[in-house]
Here is the input.
Amino acid sequence: MNQVVNALRSSCVQDGCTITSLLDDHPLPLLIASQEGQSIHTLSDTLRAIALDTLGTTGGVLFRNFKVPTPLDFKRFAASFGMPLGTYEFGSTPRSKVFAGVYSSTEYPAHQSIPLHNEQSYTRQWPSRIWFHCMTSSQTGGETPIADSRQVYQAIDPAIREEFISKGLLYVRNYSSALDLPWQQVFNTDDRSKVEQYCQSQGIDWSWSEAGELSTRQLCQAAVRHPVSQEWVWFNQAHLFHISAMAQDLRQTLIEAVGEAQLPRNVYFGDGTPIPDATLDAIRAVYANTSVAFPWQAGDVLMLDNLLVAHGRNPFSGDRKVIVAMA
Here is the structure.
């Protein structure tokens, strides 16, 4: 880490930038800050190369004080790192499409927290990189906490870790506009045959109710090896999908109304057995203990390796606009 920082410092002097760890006691994220407020498109090839190297080791880079005038400039910058930007298929949270390749961040109410997670780790196909661009910072709160997924993996009780890895995870979803996202929004189509084609290609079991509502089940990983470093990372969203993620009163109300089998989302061990609430609470505690956060500044661009770094959202007040691109 120190070698990377020193190398960046020497090159940034020439490019009108400074480089340091944003947080004094944590290497994540690395900060590349413009001293002259130049356009983000003028970032030198040297800095781009070292930023990519840093992304593969530290997992995250924050670009600050650069000019990013429009969402199109943000898209252009994200795409300039050489990977095609993806669409938000099989999503689990509400987002709005800004234009192709760029989306709003999750549109949950401002008073709610979004737990730390790796993007789309509840399925078998996920983005390898993700970018966040703060267009408007909130009056209070609204940070995007992040955590090193390697540290999360190491900090989880070995018995829990081994059970999750050996059994895998079974995600169960029931799509309904009354309780959660409708399937038309999740799959970006009104055509049932296209939904079925997607499910078949991704190893997702599906069924339709007489009323035309969709249910899916998918067996997925609990942890993976990073494709470059081969390090193990904790990579799932069991703590988000599990029934224990709901407030107790809402949980009881929904079970009484529709039954556990028809909840909008839930997760089990891969053999179909339930995951104890206490197990998920222990995992949530690990995320809380390993996460770091910093206040957004308007214009910030945060670039993350989606396998190495988990992200979330803190509650906020005032206007907040953060957009997202994935590759």
